[in-house]
Amino acid sequence: MRHATTVPQKLYKVLIYVVCIILALLSIFPFWVMVVNATRNTYQIQANAVSLIPSSYLANNWKVLVGKSFNPLKGFINSMIISTCSTILTVYFSSLTAYGLVAYDWRLRQPFFSFIMAIMMIPAQVTSIGFYQFMYRINMTNNFLPLILPAVAAPTTVFFMRQYLLGTLNIDIINSGRIDGAGEFHIFNRIILPIMKPAIATQAIFSFVGSWNNLFMPMVLLTDSDKYTLPIMVSLLRGDFYKTEYGSIYLGLTLTVLPLFIIYFLLSKYIIAGVALGSVKE
Amino acid sequence: MKRIIALFLACLMIMSLALTGCGKKDDSKEGSNSSDKSDSGTKTETQEPVKEVEDDPNVKVLNIWSFTDEVPNMLKKYKDLNPDFNYEIKETIIATTEGAYQPALDQALAGGGSDAPDIYCVEAAFVLKYTQGDAHQYAAAYKDLGIDVDRLIEEAEIAPYTVEIGTNPNGQVVGLGYQATGGAFIYRRSLAIDTWGTDDPAVIKTKIGPGWDKFFEAAEELKAKGYAIVSGDGDIWHAVENSSDKGWVVDGKLTIDPKREEFLDLSKKLKDNNYHNDTQDWTDAWYADMKGVGDKPVFGFFGPAWLINYVMAEHCGGKAPGEGTYGDWAVCEPPIGFFWGGTWVLANKNTKIPKTVGKIIEWITLDSSETGLQYFWANGTLNGPGGTKDAVASGAVMKKSDGTLDFLGGQNMFDVFVPAGEFANGKNLTQYDETINGYWREQVREYTAGNKSREQAIADFKQQVADNLDVIVE
Amino acid sequence: MRRRKGISYAKYGYIFSIPFILVYLIFSLYPTLFTAVIGFTDFKGIGRTDFNFLDNPFQNFILILKNPSFQKSLGNTVLIWTLNFIPQILLALLLTAWFTSNRRKIRGQGIFKVLFYMPNIITAATIAILFSSLFGYPIGPINSLFQKLGLSKEPIYFLMNKSVARGIVAFIQFWMWYGYTMIVFIAGVLGINPELFEAAEIDGASSRQTFFRVTLPNIRTIMLFTLVTSLVGGLNMFDIPKLFQNGGPDNSTLTAAVFIYNQAFAGSYLYNRAAAASMIMFIIILICSATIFFILRDKDAVLQRKLEKKHKKALRKAEKEARRATV
């Protein structure tokens, strides 16, 4: 049986590689175009938006970028503060909530989980008008907190973490911790969090990318140029329609994506190894 | 599932309880707001020609809001020129892309406080909202800033359309610009010689105009030589739009001016007869036509001075005469007068430093001397010699400035742009223009592409306006 | 539960959930409610903070439901989401099957996994601009490719074609998200008890049989999660349709979220109508998600839970009766 299928099996394997390589090229393509455009000047880009061959205007574009009235380094730091804080809050509190949902037997556990599933369905955009009005009224504009604090309540992440814990959490670990006299918070911080590392890494990527690329809310909430994030600065380069510096925009986009890359590749070993999500029934 | 729904209903109840509380708070806030407004309302009722104003000595910061760094940079220059200007300039720049500038500016104006803008810039696409539309109540009359506006407008020879747009419903000037955006027809000299044996602007303007009939006669002659008269229908749109007698919305009702409706036929005629290359403005193919490498060589473009300096000169494929189409261009009067784009500078009615703000605004928009901003702007010397020359709002400044450009084969562009401003019409704008123009041009494209009948295109256009805007459609 | 012997840890369940609930109440619930309430008011125009409830509180809702553009945008949203989701989930499943198969070791699968998620890193604005210039007319990379290959003589105005425009938006969504879906699926498969696979192998099941009989049923929860999150994301699709063609051509890529945005910001500041439309969308999403939950619910588990409940009730009853009897 197995011998008979070797030839089609081999063909099938070739097919797999062909599909994977095409998909991989499709993934690299926009990044390549972006990096190449960072080395071209505005007029080359406007005449021919997509090119695979680099040009020689990288230094020029850099000059335009740093010659603006804002400081890209400052934007980088602001973006880092917002994205790092919100990512930490998301993964920590989502893990905590998920642990509370899995490890303890409490009366409102099932309703609370249903509640999380329900609010997962509320689209964020729908409420953005209300959110903005609210932040304006309580004087939270030009403040990073409205961009960071909401990260504590991330229903999707809680769901993911809960599934992970259902698959990996062993009640004996908790009990042995308790026998050693450790408090519940101590058990969570010292024993459970390390177990959750792969799930945390995966969710950290998703959450960091989302926060880093977020443009609309920061743009509306942060009007002080000292508080601008990197994506706001890049969008400012588009400024007036007849004076758009496309070369430096692409350079800015490339620089924006660079930290994401670094973080993504640092954490990607968990994506490669995979995270086991429990499918245990509720 | 029942549980989820039950829980949800419970939440809704809690929410509604919480809200009634919040609603009350809103009311009280509204009360204080309206009293603010009535205060400032009484201020403007004094109808003296020029008002003596004083600054609040405790304020040391000047807030400027803009969508590019153009005006903030002018303020820096002003600070350099006036060493006694001891305010800290706090600039807020939000791009108009992504649509974030207006919501943020609106909130800042409505919210007031020390972060509220003292000076703010608005673009032609939405200027009407801030001078005559929903947000006009925030704009200070130039007179109330101590500017002798009527005398200066005359002295500086500001084009009427700029003043019309910058005048609020009470007849006070609240905003003016620094750039002149009156439009011209910018054409290729070599194609003109090949077709008519001359490239003299005085002759060419009689070939392509006045009026669309002459324009299409010229298109036919150019076609015989294998040339397109324009790149796409977007090129003639700005001229059509601005030549109409009425704007899109009159007394809250959608109005299709016959001249704008005619755009359907003009566009169809261009497409059916192959008079253009069927490009869309701001796309790759449009830029290619500036370089002369499109499908057919394109004779000309409709545009103001900024189109020449910031767009065409960069896309012509060269930097000196003989390279690409550089130097092969000239400007003449268009078949129909129009303007396109521009920035208006407004001051907040509630500014604590009206005197300083007034001085700056006067320097930017009305100072026609050789130390005024516009003189630097026209001659390209704001940041040292050799900068980009541009048409400016003041005709008086343009008359004493040198507008010769190598790009135009040595022609002085101000010869055309000073009168161009006179023909532009500032009375047919509305605050909905950006959105409605988008819908209109899209439906015109559907019609000219043959996807729809003329009636259907108009009907769909009306439907889109009715669906998305608070405008009565009959 | 307190009746049980030993220390009760139940209170920690509450304590650990407090931060989530607090933040949710402040930052999400209030804005949601605010949005819900202004749907019933005359709140429109800028610089206003006051509003009154309408005489007919449902007026905005009726206006929106009757609005032809809104109806069209709903149809577009569902169509584009379906066009993106079906291929996306199929490809993600296929890749999951390939990458988790014990028999076929795909070399370089680590790199592939990492690369497939990458389109999600880049901002939507960049991708939208990239695709509109790719399909440029009359000059553009795809057009010149078509002409070189002899597929067309005249340049084609791709973006004037409604189906093409919708197809491109669906493709971009598909391409940006299949990697994410794949990562989540792989995570689900890795969580399946390995003994199940071993048993299947011993029984002589082919890889296809294993996939359909063992893998798929066991990642049902994860599939549910993917389906619901994708539905929520898909019905709120905004960035790409807005930035790609601004809902055009002729409203063919106008999604509900773009419609809502236009109500609020396209010139008339109809916050009340935008809020009403948002709430309608929310109800639609709720109904869709509920339907999915109902169809994909784990029937055995539900049954078991019901039995448990019954059992508990019976126990309590018995306890009560016993107590009464002793009194």
UniProtKB/TrEMBL annotation, chain A:
Membrane topology designation: Multi-pass membrane protein
Pfam families (UniProt xref): BPD_transp_1 (PF00528)
Domain ABC transmembrane type-1 residues, every copy: 76-267
Protein keywords: Cell membrane, Membrane, Transmembrane, Transmembrane helix, Transport
InterPro entries: MetI-like (IPR000515), MetI-like_sf (IPR035906)
PROSITE patterns assigned to the protein according to its UniProt record, in alphabetical order: ABC_TM1
UniProt subcellular location: Cell membrane
GO CC entries: plasma membrane
BP terms from Gene Ontology: transmembrane transport
Database matches in CDD domains: TM_PBP2
Transmembrane segments: 12-33, 76-100, 112-132, 144-166, 187-209, 247-267
Family membership: Belongs to the binding-protein-dependent transport system permease family.
Protein name (Swiss-Prot/TrEMBL): Putative membrane protein
Organism annotation: Herbinix hemicellulosilytica
TrEMBL record, chain B:
InterPro entries: Bact_solute-bd_prot1
Keyword Signal set for record: yes
Transmembrane parts of this sequence: none
Region (Disordered): 23-54
Signal sequence, start to end: 1-21
Record field: compositional bias (Basic and acidic residues): 23-52
Keywords, alphabetical: Signal
Taxonomy, superkingdom: Bacteria
Entry-linked PANTHER family: ARABINOSE-BINDING PROTEIN-RELATED (PTHR43649), POLYGALACTURONAN_RHAMNOGALACTURONAN-BINDING PROTEIN YTCQ (PTHR43649:SF33)
Protein name: Putative secreted protein
UniProtKB/TrEMBL annotation, chain C:
Domain ABC transmembrane type-1: 74-292
A cellular-component GO term for this protein: plasma membrane
Protein's UniProt keywords contain Mitochondrion: no
Cited Pfam families: BPD_transp_1
Compartment(s) where it occurs, according to its Swiss-Prot or TrEMBL record: Cell membrane
Sections of the chain in a coiled coil: none
UniProt membrane topology term: Multi-pass membrane protein
Domain of life: Bacteria
InterPro entries the UniProt entry points to: ABC_transporter_permease, MetI-like, MetI-like_sf
GO biological process: transmembrane transport
Primary residence: membrane
UniProt KW keywords: Cell membrane, Membrane, Transmembrane, Transmembrane helix, Transport
TM helices/strands, residue ranges: 12-30, 78-99, 111-135, 177-197, 218-238, 274-296
Signal peptide interval: none
Similarity remark: Belongs to the binding-protein-dependent transport system permease family.
PANTHER family xrefs: ABC TRANSPORTER PERMEASE PROTEIN (PTHR30193), INNER MEMBRANE ABC TRANSPORTER PERMEASE PROTEIN YCJO (PTHR30193:SF37)
Name used for this protein in its record: Putative membrane protein
Organism expressing this protein natively: Herbinix hemicellulosilytica
